[in-house]
Write a structure and sequence with these properties.
By secondary structure, the protein is α+β, with helices and mostly antiparallel strands. The protein is built from four helices and six strands, in the order H-H-H-E-E-E-E-E-E-H. It has two domains: about 60 residues; about 90 residues. Strands 1-5-6-4-3-2 form a six-stranded mixed β-sheet.
Length: about 190
């Protein structure tokens, strides 16, 4: 008799929603382990002194982040100043130049740091630095030596990449538990009346 008073479709909907939230929690736990693997790779990459060519493929390039590279930058234009830090951690403006490699791959290059937000003219040339996490334009490199008149920008740091997947997983599990508790309380109230 009590089972007849339990609404079928709302109960099914709450159980399905809770199941989806639990699945999302486990998916975040999977992502946590994947991200830990990538962060370990990036820490190892930052220790290598050998150079690699910047991969044109985005997935391959992601696995090369924080490695050393050297290439010839074909550029002729003004930089785009963006908020950044120098090698000592001081806030200011990172000067980003737009390059193309000889094979046509576009590469943004952080050619140095300044306190002034004014763009400067950048005509390209040899670049030696670190492959940084991709930006909106694709491949990025932070030059190890700044161009004349600028100071060295902070090198890309693998420790700056967040790994929030454990907290996301906990949130999904708490959402599922909250939904089930609230629905159980609502059912209890309905059955008591």
């Amino acid at each position: 008799m009590t089972l007849r008073r339990i609404p079928f479709f709302p109960t099914l909907l709450v159980l399905l929603a809770a199941g989806v939230m639990i699945r999302l929690g486990f998916w975040q736990l999977d992502r946590l382990h994947q991200k830990e693997g990538l962060l370990h790779l990036y820490s190892e990459n930052a220790r290598y002194s050998s150079e690699v060519e910047i991969p044109a493929d985005k997935a391959a390039r992601e696995r090369a982040w924080f490695r050393h590279t050297t290439f010839e930058c074909i550029a002729n234009g003004d930089t785009q100043p963006r908020a950044g830090h120098d090698s000592k951690g001081q806030s200011g403006w990172a000067q980003w130049g737009q390059c193309r490699r000889a094979d046509g791959l576009p590469v943004e290059v952080n050619i140095g740091w300044s306190q002034a937000p004014a763009p400067i003219h950048y005509s390209g040339g040899p670049v030696s630095g670190f492959i940084a996490p991709d930006g909106q334009q694709g491949a990025r490199v932070v030059a190890g030596q700044p161009v004349e008149g600028l100071q060295a920008s902070a090198a890309p740091d693998p420790n700056a990449i967040p790994n929030n997947h454990l907290s996301y997983a906990v949130q999904w599990f708490l959402f599922a538990a909250t939904a089930l508790v609230i629905y159980a309380l609502a059912l209890r109230k309905r059955l008591a009346s």
